[in-house]
Amino acid sequence: MIIETEHLIIRDFQEKDAVGLLEYLSHPRVNCFVSERLCSEESALAYISNTPKELLRYAVCLKEDDFIIGDVFALREEADTFNVGWHFNQRFEGKGLAHEAATEFLDYLFREAGARRIYGFVEDDNLRSKRLCERLGMRYEGCMKEFISFVCHPDGTPRYEDTCIYAVLNKEWKNNKNR
């Protein structure tokens, strides 16, 4: 799969992506990705080669030099429903690149993968991801209080996260694109 945008290429992962992947996943900025922390180029290569078959996961690269700056992913939960997410390198924030990539990825899921509904979970304190969902036209559907724990407090007890849900239907996506 290859999607080209004005500034980006969204494509399958390649071995050369290991260095860039390590750069942004060596210290995941949100707790839900703590289990994906990478500590070496070898672990980044393993991450690339061990993508579960049911997960659509693609590298987001700069068009000018094909350097990976993030990734987008989706899990098909029902025949027509996808749970989506993304990681982006902090070094490239504030340039609209995450919005550009996520817009094209969601469009791909609606057009090519038969999505009727796309939703994402966002930790309540992840303001950048919440804003991205809103810019994409995703509707805030609610916040589950103390929904899940990814990390522990210093005393070893679980730290539960408040988790928001954002979603968009295919018909809403089409209406938003026509405006």
From TrEMBL:
Gene3D superfamilies: 3.40.630.30. It holds the Pfam family Acetyltransf_3. InterPro entries: Acyl_CoA_acyltransferase, GNAT_dom, N-acetyltransferase. Coiled coil: none annotated. It comes from the Bacteria. Residues 8-165 form the N-acetyltransferase domain. GO terms for molecular function: acyltransferase activity, transferring groups other than amino-acyl groups. This is N-acetyltransferase GCN5. It comes from Alistipes finegoldii.
